[in-house]
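Weekly puzzle thread! Below is a chain. First person to post its structure in token form gets bragging rights.
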Amino acid sequence: MCGITGIFDMKGENRIRPEIMDNMIQAVAHRGPDGQDRYMDSRVGLGFVRLSFLDPEGGMQPITNETSDLVLVCNGEIFNFLELRKELEGRGHRFRTEVDVEVILHLYEEYGTDAVKRLNGQFAFVIYDRRDRSIFCARDHVGIAPFFYTVYDGFFIFASEIKAILQYPGITGRLNMHAVDQLLTFPGCRAPNTFFKDIYTLENGHFMKFCTAKSIRQQEYWDVRYPEITEDRGEDYYAESLLERIEQAVKIRLHAQVPIGFYISGGLDSSVIAGLINRSARTPYHSFSIDFADRSVSESRFQRCVQRNVKSLHHKKLFTQQDMARYFKPVIYHGETPLRETYNTASMALSEMVHETGVKAVLTGEGADEFFSGYVGYKFDAARKKERGMILTDEEKAVNDVVYGDPDFFYERSLTELENIKPQIYSKDVGASLKEFTAVGRPVLKPGVIRNLDEQQKRSYADYKLRLPEHLLADHGDRMTFANAIEARYPFLDINVLDLAVRMPSRYKLDSSLNEKYIVKKMARGIVPDEIISRTKFAFVAPGVSELLKCKDEYVETLLSEKSIKGQGIFNWDYVEALKRRYQTEGFRLNLPFDTDYLIIVLTVSAFYDIFDLSL
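Winning reply:
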């Protein structure tokens, strides 16, 4: 993958200035250290920075089709490009390069906007069609590759990172309080929102095609669908099918002309990836892990177990309180978002270590928890069902129906209880306008889409929409790896793996004994050490903000000072002061991931506001 950016003049008045394009390209240059280029005409400017994996000599973008009618910039990888290329060459298409993304141009010639449905990969791209002077842009099925945009003064301005959009003269950053309230309410901000007012993200599984501002509209081409299961083929079939698809997903993600490695967290999912890579490896691959000086969150024992099993060339970083403080500000800058946890600091340190070895991409295990019932919430749902459900008030049911499209769906915590807490958190002025930006009372899932699903499917769909694309794959994923020019690849999010996951009976994901990811564990036997398969589920967490406070970091202390909190005017100083006292009490520890770390939200919103010089 790489970085893209561009400007489309919807008025067609030849107003695009080369120096602005160059500034935007430089803002994402860290994503592509292997080269950069741009295409410009009277209507459009397209910029590209490259992290090369294939055809290092001939694969620079923007690229055109045979007639130069179509111009493409793409951030991403197309993993089924070999079969698509063979098909397209059989139809008479001529390819100019050996890079995978060139198939997008020729698919578009054949199928128009339906071309995106043929792709298996992680991508965000823009095609400028010179024939009708239109823009076609699309983002991958689950949202691995980022795509941000805004409309300003008749221009459509887009980029892989928002900091490039902010380079456009006249665009100033304003804090989107609706996104902040979503962060307090859900695992993260919900697309198309970003934390910058009037700057949007293209939702995963969506595309846009337009010529004018009036025709800009996101259209869905893919979503998770749970078909009726008319035949249960048995756990052996599903385990074997899952192994076959995961193995293929790993294989196609190792295709590159540069070094690729993998993460070892000590958990089941990354261990499966490591074991499958080791199965076919002719020479050892590089592996990477992070360990914490805080023994309560250390997984070093399990990481060593996996590393010995796969005999990789292993690199480990010991992460300390001081590291958390050192990476804090860069994490907010590169992530372009406030946070609910501190673990992005560890994620950035991990990708920095990868970069130092010369490895350009890593395979990792995200996606298994969301689609194979891995989080503790799935167990809670099952337990509540056995106890004949949770008693919800009429008010809670009414709110849930609006927000989730199902009155009986309970996700994370009571929305009505949370709504009662918020006036304490926000400043008086901000709290007075809470009804204008509250996340509660507005839909975050399409109405009715989960109503007829079983409990596991409901939570899986909510995790897929609310946790995965704009958090785990975004500020925790893409932005932390590409801060150091590293690409992450996710075999569990392969489109063929997901197709099997949604067609699999839920009882094979969380079994009757409340054994999470049951089918993944069954599949993993013989690939992953038994010690990993049988271990208790342990979420990847870093030491909390209470540990960060112990560092006495000047920037952190300034942000949490009375002067700063009152000056920004977002949060209630009395509430923040009480939180600080509580967090600094001897022996205090949050029960992560169950407790909401309100102080890290306050701290990171304040840092975000400061770093990007925002206004309300």
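Puzzle host: Confirmed. Bonus trivia for everyone else. Residues 478 and 488 are 7 Å apart (CA to CA).
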